[in-house]
Amino acid sequence: MGKRDYGGMTVNERLFASGLLDDFDRALAKGDKAAIEDILEQVDVDPNLAKSLLRDGC
Questions:
Q1: Helix axes 47-57, 33-42, angle to 10 degrees
Q2: Rounded to an integer, what distance in angstroms lies between the CA atom of residue 18 and that of residue 24?
Q3: Which of 4, 11, 27, 41 is the most buried (most CB within 10 A)?
Q4: In the predicted structure, residue 14 carries a pLDDT above the cut 60
Q5: For 55, phi and psi rounded to 5 degrees?
Q6: So what's the pLDDT on residue 32?
Q7: Where are the strands (E) in 3-43, listed by range?
Q8: Is the pLDDT of residue 56 over 80?
Q9: d(C-alpha 56, C-alpha 8), whole Å
Q10: Where are the domains of the chain?
């Protein structure tokens, strides 16, 4: 199966469409930055944006 095209989707939409929203919420609740970064990478969030979100939001 090919890689999903997340173009035009918000981060939340990407997480929902990929089935990773619950995993992301759990990682966020635990403050597990490594898991959060991994999940964001799986839904093609720009690495710089992911690092910025982690730095500012966790």
A1: 150
A2: 11
A3: 27
A4: yes
A5: -70, -40
A6: 95
A7: none
A8: no
A9: 23
A10: 32-58
